[in-house]
Amino acid sequence: MAPIPTGRERTFSPDDLIVSKTDPKGRITYANDVFLRISGYEAEEVVGQPHNLVRHPAMPAGLFKLLWDTISDGREVFAYINNLAKNGDHYWVLAHVTTADDRGHLDGYHSSRRVPDPHAVRAAEAVYRDMLAVESRTSGGRAAAEAGLAHLNGVRERDGRSYDELVWSLIETGRRSA
């Protein structure tokens, strides 16, 4: 059963690097000590489980559709993600996800996560709230993810930015609204 969000935020050091690896279907094959410490899970509890084990329910499905579409094409992706610890606390990360490739054969995915800029988190929260509102007006599942992604693409296109430019601009956007 998924943990119930507590509303409490966990923090970690800017020197910490959360690392995990998954198979091509997104099941965890490796989690470093920082991942385990911050998430509150033991290695035996995460290895073999879908990575969405730590997905916070306040994260829009459209963002994960974008993430999967991007890495499935063999491209790297950066994203601000709110994760859910075993006890229901949450922790924000700036994730960098890449493919793990063994001579042209997809072995899975590698994700490194760092402490995000707090201004970027505030700006990302606003974008994600809007995506969630759009998704909630849709029948759910794939349709909701598509609607959320369409909204994100609309924001990106309105500003004339690529997704990567949007991600990095959230730092400045958050500072202006602070």
From TrEMBL:
Pfam families with a match to the protein in the record: PAS_3 (PF08447)
InterPro entries the UniProt entry points to: PAS, PAS-like_dom_sf, PAS_fold_3
Family annotation (PROSITE patterns): PAS
Top-level lineage group: Bacteria
Annotated PAS domain residues: 23-49
Protein name: PAS domain-containing protein
Organism in which the protein naturally occurs: Mobilicoccus pelagius NBRC 104925
